[in-house]
Amino acid sequence: MDVRQLTPFLSVSPQMTAADVGLAASMGFKAIICNRPDQESHDQPANDEIRAAAERHGLAWHYQPVISGQITDEDVARFREMMQTLHGPVLAFCRTGSRCSTLWALAEAPRLDVEAILKATAAAGYDLTAQRDRIQGLATSPGKQGAGRAGGGSGKLHDVLIIGGGAAGQSVAGSLLRRQPGLDIAIVEPRSEHYYQPGWTLVGGGVFERAETMRRMVDVMPREVHWYQAAASAFTPEQRQVVLEDGEKIGYRILVVAPGLTLDWDAIPGLRETLGRNGVTSNYLFDLAPYTWELVQNTRKGRAIFTQPAMPIKCAGAPQKAMYLSCDHWNRKGWLNNLDVEFCTAGAALFGVADYVPALQEYVGKYGINVNFQNNLIKVDGDARTAVFRVTDGEGNTSEVEKTFDMLHVCPPQRAPKFISESPLADAAGWIDLNPETLQHARYGDIFGLGDAGNTPNAKTAAAVRKQAPVVAENVLLALKGEAPKAIYDGYGSCPLTVERGKIVLAEFGYGGKLQPSFPSWLVEGTRPSRFAWLLKEKMLPWIYWNAMLKGHEWMAGPEILAHRPADHEVGEACDFGGRKP
């Protein structure tokens, strides 16, 4: 099979067969698009057979037949709409791949630079220079989208307005100022403290002190930035304004939305009332992580339950990290044999990227953990020390099971903040509707987003933000000049899975679960536990966060620029921690 990558999210191919589908699945593709009509030629494989193979392998199948040489504007619009709904990576095919490439080029014309589009298709082996005029005609400069709109009546107008002063918002501000010192930037953030949230796992494991993970917001906020210490309450994108909680309206030329997500404690009846007592804790809260460590030290027998809700959640490995560190302590103290440890997850797999599962399974066996798939926590009675789970069996039948506990570590359900989910910026599920590569809003060209509140199908981790922030910064500056985005995000995320004190499985992957190791295998074998990865997590990453990431230093995180498609040998040499060199 001849697969040719246009972007990290979309590849194209000449005619596929049913036998090719299994190979496509093994390469990490999640969806297949057929752009070739049935029976276009006598030697063409039947699409029904390819579709059936896709269904067997769990790949989404989409059929959009396009007549060769007659691609209409309606075809382009339909392709664009389809791409906005798919979870990638995506593989599209036709007779030669040319139609698929042309559809992509025309669909991306309003968002990407014309030369960048032509270079990308040429690098994949498709010369679309004959389509230049049509691509140019379809192009609408992102900086001019919504022409005639203004920040009218706001009284305050900034070149760049950032919603959220967490890891994502601060990192974008730092990257912007590194590129263009003196840029007029404002950040809307109500909190007075800034937290290094990845450190809370180690607080709950007795490695860090809680105070190490917090700094005053005023000490983190760049001095060059105007800080509105208030909460955003609404967006009026047609007027290029954000409404603050007090009714004040702030205008912008470019808006960056990075508010993080909401931990929905109230989605589980009884949970909020018992947090921090009755043996109920969570490393997802700054105030409770020390209580986790207290419970670990004092729980010497009985049942300890660790829960994980349905995705998406921030740091999908965090519930397991808490469990493994707790078990390691109990094992070292000789108490583990007196404990019944259960992992109750709403999902059907131990981890979303299969390559890392074997190492995790070894630790599950070592600690004697009972793993219960499709067990979703739905109610907690702290005083009675009981938890109720909705259990789904292999036939899809559900039942409710009550379990007693001596210690309960809860990962709560998570959702986008209400002011996002009820805004014009949201998709149908309530998340910020973003292009998964440029991180530009799907409908508003003067809006970008990143971090946990976006609908991009990457892991919601600080490592993802490290890679996203330079991409957004690059594209924001292009949009301010009236140019199309050129920097792209490949879905990189990292989850350092703390399987014991002193060892970590350093999971690094991009869209579709494609492994993206930062270090040579002789230093870190990413799918195996490593002492170097522990050193990275404990000593290096906190320093990098406070002193590099938030200040715009993009060490090993520089964005890939679509206008320059490196040769294969260049990509191999450039791969490093969290990014590729442009």
UniProtKB/TrEMBL annotation:
The protein, known as: TIGR01244 family phosphatase
Gene Ontology MF, one: hydrolase activity
Alphabetized UniProt keyword annotations: FAD, Flavoprotein, Oxidoreductase, Quinone, Transit peptide
Residue span, Beta-lactamase hydrolase-like protein phosphatase-like domain: 2-109
Cited InterPro entries: BLH_phosphatase-like, FAD/NAD-bd_sf, FAD/NAD-binding_dom, Prot-tyrosine_phosphatase-like, Sulphide_quinone_reductase
Residues of the FAD/NAD(P)-binding domain: 158-274
Organism from which the protein derives: Marinobacter profundi
CC cofactor: FAD
A GO BP entry: sulfide oxidation, using sulfide:quinone oxidoreductase
